[in-house]
Amino acid sequence: MFDSIAWRYDFLNHLLSLGIDRSWRRKAISIISETHKNPKIIDVATGTGDLALEAVSLNPEKITAIDISDKMLEIAEKKVREKRLTGLIEFIKCESENICFEDNTFDVAMVAFGVRNFSDPLRGLTEMRRVLCKSGLIMVLEFSKPDGHLFRSVYDSYFRNLLPTIGGLFSKNRRAYRYLNVSVTEFPDNEEFIEMMRKAGFSGIRQTRLTKGIASIYTGIKE
After folding, report:
1. Which of 36, 60, 63, 70 is most buried when burial is the number of CB atoms within 10 A of its CB?
2. Which domains does the chain have, with CATH numbers?
């Protein structure tokens, strides 16, 4: 499914979020910068690499970005080549629930809008913890349910009706954007997701809600 929409993925992300997704990624990276300087980073479910590119501002030792979609990785690699960052960012085809690296390899593990697509989210989080060094940071940027009854009603209507129509029109795959609605609606968020992170072994968990709760940044530490 992600291979089929890769060619329109960035355009539709920006269009459907009215460009707000860019500021969410910047905020996520700024939170990482509060505790980690020059980190060795793994970007899980990187998609077309936007979060990895944003993380360049951290002056990282290296960024390793993984995904299972060949088409997404092709686009990500092209973007990195155009910015002449090939030596800094490496892309590898790898499963999020079976990360192809040894224990205690990275300082930061991050994922944007990917955990809800894991076949087993708890296992994916546990794998991210495994590859982190002691005191390593996990950062998860993910959709969440917004605040306020009226705002949530408008948001739900947009996600249920308008988003699949626009997404299907531009990507030629309406099913993929129906899936987006379902995946966001059914995914555990807020306290439920924080509890999932605890089960995965993280401590010091914090949630930062963005744009009236449309998205959230979750962070935790591997002790």
Report:
1. 63
2. 19-145+190-221 (3.40.50.150)
Geometric angle at alpha carbon 95, from 98 and 92, rounded to 5° = 120
Q: Which two tokens stand for residue 179?
A: 């899936």
Residue 130 clears pLDDT 70, i.e. is over it: yes
Q: Answer yes or no: is pLDDT of 159 > 50.
A: yes
For residue 172, the tally of other CB atoms under 10 A from its CB is: 12
